Amino acid sequence: MNEPKEALSAQALALIAEEEALLGRVHSALQATAARQQALRGQPRSALLERLTELRDEATSAVESDLPALFQQIDNTRAVLERDASAKLPEPSTPYFAHLRLKRHEGTSQEYLLGRTTFTDAQAGVRIIDWRYAPIARVFYGYAEGDDYEEWFGDRLSEGVVEARRLLVIERGVLTRIRAGSLHLERTAQGDWREVSATSVLSGGAGTAVRAGSLGVGTGEEGRAARFDVTAQLDAEQFEALQTAANEPLLVLGSAGSGKTTVALHRLSKITFELRAASLPSKMKVIVPEEGLARLSKRLLAPLELRNVSVETLDTWAYATACTAFGMKTIPLSSDKPALAARLKRHPALKPVLERQLGKRKTKDPSFKILRKRLAEVLTDRTALAEVIAASQGDLPTPAIDDTVRHTMLQLATPLAKELEGYHPEALATIDGLSVEDSTPDALAGTVDAEDLPLLLYLKLKYSELGTDPLAHAVLDEAEDFSLFELSVVAQQLGKTRSCTLAGDEMQQTTTSFAGWPAALAELGVKDAATVRLSVSYRCPRPVIELARHVLGPLAPESPPKNARDGVPVGFHHFPEEAQAWLFVRDSLKDLLEREPKASVAVIASSPEAARAFHKVVDDMSGVRLVLEGDFSFEPGVDVTDVESIKGLEFDYVILPDATARSWPQTDEARRKLHVAITRASHQLWVISSGVRSRLLPAPQS
Ligand SMILES: Nc1ncnc2c1ncn2[C@@H]1O[C@H](COP(=O)(O)OP(=O)(O)OP(=O)(O)O)[C@@H](O)[C@H]1O
Known about the structure:
By secondary structure, the protein is α/β, with parallel strands linked by helices. Bound molecules: adenosine-5'-triphosphate (ATP). Adenosine-5'-triphosphate binds at residues 230, 233-235, 238, 254, 256-262, 505, 508, 538-539, 648, 650, 679. GO terms for molecular function: 3'-5' DNA helicase activity; ATP binding; DNA binding; hydrolase activity.
C-alpha cells in the first residue's frame, strides 16, 4: 500500500491549488470556444466580418457602461474568425499532460501546457501546445525544473530558467496526479490529495521491502493510480531521436525496455502530423514479428490518434503482399512444418545460394507457380542446402537438410483432392468426417509455408515489381527478427521513400534471421540510416536487469543500461520434482490474484508444450488464460504463454515455470530467449526449477 504522509506541505497545497485552478481555466475556455463554434457554425466568413464591423461601430458611440459587453462580443467574433469554426479542440477529459513555466532572462514568464491538440485563449491565459511540433517542447524534454535553458528558435535565441516542469494525469476531466521534480502527489479515491514517496512509486506501489519469497509488491491492487502519459515522460535522448527528419531512415537500438517501441510509434505520430495528409495513415505501416506485439502496438497507437495505421505481423504482411503481387485471392498455407526447415528458410546464408542457383534463369514476370517450382528445386538440392548449413557457421544443424528436402517433396506432390477429381463424394467419405488427406502427409500437397512467401516475393523482385501500394513510412519493430528477404520486400514497398524506423536489439533475436545491422540496413536500401542507442532502462528493475545480463553471459553488451531502478530481489525456487514446483506456483498465483486482482501476470514457459502442461495445473482458476497464438487481452489476470509469444510485451509479474537444464540449455539461442523472457517483468520475477536447474542461471546461494 502507498502510505499517505501525515499532512501535505504548504508547497504541495499551493501546487495542487495552482494546477486545479489552471485546469478549471482550461475547461472554461474550452467550453466557451465550443459554444462559440456551435453558435457560429455555418455562418459565412463574410457575415462574421460584417458583424465585427458593426460591433466596432457600435463601440465608438456606446455609453461607457455598455463597453465591457461590447468588447466581449468583439473578442468572441474575432476569436471565431481567427480559429476555423470547425477546428478541433482538445479533448476536455484529457486536454494536456504536462505544464511548463519559463521565466525569460528579460523578466517575463510564460506558461505552456503540452498536449496533442493546439489551443490558445490569450484572454484566459491558456496555451496548449502540440508536443510534436511546438519548438518550445524542446525545452520541456531537454531540461529539468530549475535548469537554465538556452535554445534557438529559428534565428532567435531564447534564454531563461525552467520555473516549473510538471507531469500531470487528468482522468475524465479530473486532475488525479502531479509530479514536480521529486514531489509526487496523488488524489485518493475519496478525493483528498496525498504525497506518495518516490520509492513506493518506483517499486510499483508497495513501499515496503518485499522478501523474495513472497509474490506481490502491491502493483496490482484495487485502485491503482493511472500512469503518467509516456509522451510526457520521453527523455532528452528519446526526444532527440524524434527530431530525425521525416524523410530519413532511423535505426533505434537499446536494451530490453529502453523505449524503442515507444520512440518508433511516437516518430510515426510526429511524421503523420508533419506530412499532414488526411489519407496518410493508410500509407503508414507497422510490421512486427508476432501477434502479441501487433496487438500491443495497436493499443499504444490509439492515444497517439493513429488508430487507422495498419499494424501487421510479418506473416500477415507477407501473405497479403504475396496475394497482391501474384494476383491470387488465397494461397494454400501448410499448417504443419518442420522447425528446422523454417529456420533454414529465414537464414541469411540461404540468400547467396538462392541467388547463385536462380540468377541464371531469365523469365519475364514469372508466375507464382513457376517461382514456386524454382524455389523447390533449390530446397530439394542437397548440395546447395549443405552449403547453406556450412555458411551458417553452426546456426543450422545438418538435419535441417533432410527436413527441408522431405517437407518440400511432400508439398510438391499433387493434392489428393485433385487426383481424386471425378470420384463420387460417398466413395471419399471418412469415418471422422474429415477430408481424406487431413492429418496425413498428403495434407501438405500443394501448400507453401509462411516462410516461403518472402522468398517467393524476393524472387519475383528479381524479374519485376510487386505491384503493391507504396508506403509513406514503415516501422519495423523487433527488426532483429526480420529476414533479409523480408527487408528486401519492404525496401521495394518504400520505393524512393527512405522514410522508415527500425527498432531492435541484437540481444533479443529469437529466430535465425539476423544478419547484423549493416547487412539489414543495406538490404533495406538505407545504409546511411541515422542510429540512436537508447541507454536508459525503463521497464525492468535492477535485480531483473542483473539476472538478464548474467544469463546472456559472453553475449552481454559491455555496458549495462543506465539508471536502473531498485526493485524486489528475483525469487529463485527449486524443487525436486516438477509437480511440486507447479503446485507451489499454483498456490502463489491464487494468493496473488486474491490480493492483487488488477495485476498482470505472465507465466512464460520455454515452449508451447510446456505452457500447455503448466496450464493444466491452473485451468480451473478464474482469471487464468492459455495464450499461445499471441491473442493477449491485456486484461488483469494470468497469461500462461511461451517464450515465442511475448516479444515486446511487459507484465507486472513474470514467472518462469521450467527453468531446467533441459528447457534452457547452454546455447546462444537459449541465452537470448531466456533473456527475452526475463526482461518482460516490470516489477517482480520468479524463476522456478525442478530436477536439474538451468546452468544459465547463477549458482544457488547456500
Ligand atoms: N522516458 C520514459 N519514461 C518512463 N517510461 C518509459 C519511457 N520510455 C519508455 N517507457 C516505458 O518503458 C516500457 C518499455 O518501453 P518499450 O516497450 O518502448 O521498450 P522497448 O525498448 O521497445 O522494449 P523491448 O526491447 O522489450 O521491446 C514501457 O512501459 C514504456 O511505456
